[in-house]
Design brief:
It contains 8 helices and 3 strands. A 3-stranded mixed sheet has the order 1-2-3, covered by helices on one side. By secondary structure, the chain is mainly alpha-helical. The protein is about 65% helix and about 10% strand. The chain folds into 2 domains: about 20-215, Cation efflux protein transmembrane domain (Alpha-lytic protease prodomain-like), CATH 1.20.1510; about 225-305, Cation efflux protein, cytoplasmic domain (Alpha-Beta Plaits). The relative contact order is 0.14. The protein starts with 17 loop residues before the first helix and ends in an 11-residue tail after the last strand.
Length: about 300
């Protein structure tokens, strides 16, 4: 029995434009940083605690975008002798960190909302509405920059969720500001905040579960193990497959190792073709790196196959 490590070509980033994603991160960080400064000034001059609190919240989100960008950049770094896969898992850590930050943000929103329901604070509806309106534009615009790639990479999805959550929070603030101006119901601010927190939690919980799964080398959520097994076993010349393992190298790349049992009539010249076919099929199902070991008719000569 011989080991033959067959790696498919690196198409890890071909499913989205790296330059566009990098540009989206830079735009998101820059615009959010400017908005934090605007909110801090408006909050200080108007004496609005709500606006100042949102400035702090947006500062945390700007930091989370920096974390996501760092993870993305590290994933593109070349392998070293100590890190033979490079720093690809950095994107998983970044997505996980963002999920935790979002959960903490939700907890803060809920805590403040409950506090204010019991003792409503007088709020200047117009100032809050204008500031939140700017927030919708900035966060909505930057969220859209990540929209097309959010399902292709968990790290990008984490960044998208942060920005979309911020836009939602800002929309909630605009609605509550309008209710305060029209009806004078100061508790509206808290009620809307709780609704928004619930919406953010639903998305964040999914992100957290997915990042935990790939942190533990589980099968990525978008990969179907049964489908992969069927594809391999339906390849001409393959009798069966065992010791099949699939895990994520990063939030952008998946790997597979497997023992392939060949039919008895498979000749030496056909082994390489079978492996290439398996790699090709696996790539179409979201696997970028395959390491295959064959068993059966070609065992004695397997070491000669490259």
């Amino acid at each position: 029995m011989g080991h033959n490590h067959e790696h498919s070509h690196d198409h890890s980033h071909s499913h989205f434009d790296v330059q566009n994603v990098r540009r989206a991160f830079i735009w998101g960080i820059a615009l959010n940083a400017v908005f934090v400064v605007i909110e801090a000034i408006v909050g200080y001059l108007s004496g609005s605690l709500a606006v100042l609190a949102d400035a702090g919240h947006n500062l945390a989100d700007t930091a989370s975008l920096v974390i996501a960008l760092l993870g993305f950049r590290l994933a593109l770094a070349k392998p070293t002798q100590k890190y033979t896969y490079g720093y690809k898992k950095a994107t998983v850590l970044a997505a996980f960190a963002n999920a935790i930050i979002l959960l903490i943000t939700i907890a803060v929103i809920v805590y403040e909302a409950v506090e204010r329901i019991s003792s409503p604070v007088e709020i200047d509806g117009k100032v809050v509405m204008i500031t939140a309106g700017i927030g919708i534009l900035i966060n909505g615009f930057t969220a859209m920059l990540f929209f097309s790639n959010k399902e292709k990479d968990l790290n990008i999805k984490g960044a998208y969720l942060h920005l979309a959550a911020d836009a939602l929070v800002s929309l909630g603030v605009v609605i509550s500001g309008a209710i305060i101006i029209i009806f004078g119901f100061y508790w509206a601010d808290s009620v809307v905040s709780l609704i928004v927190a619930g919406v953010i939690f639903a998305s964040t919980w999914s992100l957290l579960k997915q990042t935990l799964r790939i942190s533990l080398d589980g099968v990525p959520h978008n990969i179907n193990l049964e489908e992969i097994t069927k594809e391999i076993e339906s390849t001409e010349g393959v009798k069966s497959v065992h010791h099949l393992h699939i895990w994520a190298l990063s939030t952008m790349q998946n790997a597979l190792t497997a023992h392939i049992v060949l039919n008895e009539d498979v000749q030496l010249t056909g082994i390489q073709k079978i492996k290439e076919e398996i790699r090709h099929r696996a790539e179409h199902l979201g696997i970028q790196h395959c390491t295959l070991e064959t068993e059966g008719a070609g065992d004695k000569c397997e070491h000669k196959v490259h």
